[in-house]
Amino acid sequence: MTLILRDWLPVCSMKRVICHWTAGGYKATSLDRAHYHILIEDDGKLVRGTHSIADNVSTADGVYAAHTAKCNTGSIGVSVCCMGGAQASPFQPGPFPMTQKQWETMAKVVAELCQFYQIPVTPQTVLGHGEVEIYLGIPQHGKWDPMVLPWAPEMSRTQVGNHLRALVQKAILGEEPPEQPSGATLSIGGKTFSVVMLNESAYIAVRPLADALGWTISSAAGGQVKVNVGGKMLTLASTVVSGRGHVACRELANALDLPIEWDAATRVIMIG
Questions:
Q1: Is the peptide bond preceding residue 153 cis, with omega within 30 degrees of 0?
Q2: What mean pLDDT is predicted for residues 254-265?
Q3: Which residues of 210-220 are buried (b: 16+ CB within 10 A; e: fewer)?
Q4: pLDDT digits (tens, 9 = 90+) for 29-86
Q5: Does the pLDDT value for residue 178 go beyond 70?
Q6: Which residues contact 214 (CB under 8 A, 6 or more apart)?
Q7: Does 6-173 carry CATH code 3.40.80.10?
Q8: Across residues 163-189, what is the average pLDDT?
Q9: Is the pTM above the cut of 0.70?
Q10: What is the pLDDT of residue 180?
Q11: What HEC string does the chain produce?
C-alpha cells in the first residue's frame, strides 16, 4: 500500500530527496507546510506542503519550498514534525522528540519518492539536512537534522544516515520486516534488563543500561562505544539492533572482569 497520494506527485524531473525535522511540535503548521513538500506528524499522518514538488524543478521564480539553503533546485523536502526545543550538545531531544514511527514512515515516503522520480539511493541523492554540507559541499550553518535518533543517541551521524538509506532501500525492494530477535533477560548490578538474542549471542542496549547503573557514555562512533564505569573506561564493540546501539553481554562481562551465567529454563543471563 502506497502512502503518498498520486496527485501529490507531479510528473517532473527531480534529483534528490533531503530529509529534515521541523524543530517544532508534532503537528504541521502553516509555516512548516510552506517549507516542505511532505510532512509526517507524530501519528504517522502525511501532510502535503503548500508548494508542489514541481515548484522545485526551478527556483528562479522564487516560488518553491525553501527547505535547504542553496540546495532547493531539484530537491524534494520531506520533514518529520518534531524536535522543538532540542539541543545538539549535550544532546537534549526537547518536549517533542522524533518517534520511531515518524522515522520509519519517513523512510517509506522517501522510498516511494525515489521510485516515482527514479532517484538512486546514494548519500548524494538521499540524505539528511545535516549531511548536505558533507556530501554536497554546500554550507548549512550547523544544521543537524534529522541526524540524531532520540531512542539511540549514541549512533554517529554517519550511522544514522546509512541507517536511513538502508531502510529506504529495503522499502524499495519490498522486503518483509525481519523477524523479531528472540528475547531474554539480563541481571546485573541488582537490576534486570531486556536483551535480544542474535546468532546465539545476547546483546543489551547500552544507553538504558548505562543510565540505570549510573555509568557514563563518553563516546560512540565507528562501531565502538566507550563507557566510564566507576572511573574505569571500557571500550566495547557496538552493534545496531532496531536502530539502537547494543553491546554483547559476554564482552561486557569480560570487560568488567565478572562471571557470566546463562539459565536456559528462565532465559536469564546473570553477570556478577
A1: no
A2: 89
A3: beeeebebeeb
A4: 999 999 999 999 999 999 999 999 999 999 999 999 999 999 999 999 999 999 999 9
A5: no
A6: none
A7: yes
A8: 78
A9: no
A10: 43
A11: CCCCCHHHCCCCCCCEEEEEECCECCCCCHHHHHHCCEEECCCCCEEECCCCHHHHCCCCCCCCCCCCCCCCCCEEEEEECCECCCECCCCECCCCCCCHHHHHHHHHHHHHHHHHHCCCCCCCCEEEHHHHHHHHCCCCCCCCCCCCCCCCCCCCHHHHHHHHHHHHHHHHHCCCCCCCCEEEEEEECCEEEEEEEECCEEEEEHHHHHHHHCCEEEEEECCEEEEEECCEEEEEECEEECCEEEEEHHHHHHHHCCCEEEECCCCEEEEC
Half-sphere exposure of 143 (CA within 13 A, CB side): 23
* Residue 224 pLDDT grade (very low, low, confident, very high; cuts 50, 70, 90): confident
pLDDT surpassing 90 at residue 174: no
CA 96 to chain centre: 15
The full set of domain ranges for the chain reads 6-173, 182-271
Phi, psi angle pair for 207, to nearest 5°: -65, -55
Average pLDDT on 77-96 reads: 95
> What is the rounded radius of gyration, in angstroms, for the C-alpha atoms of the chain?
21
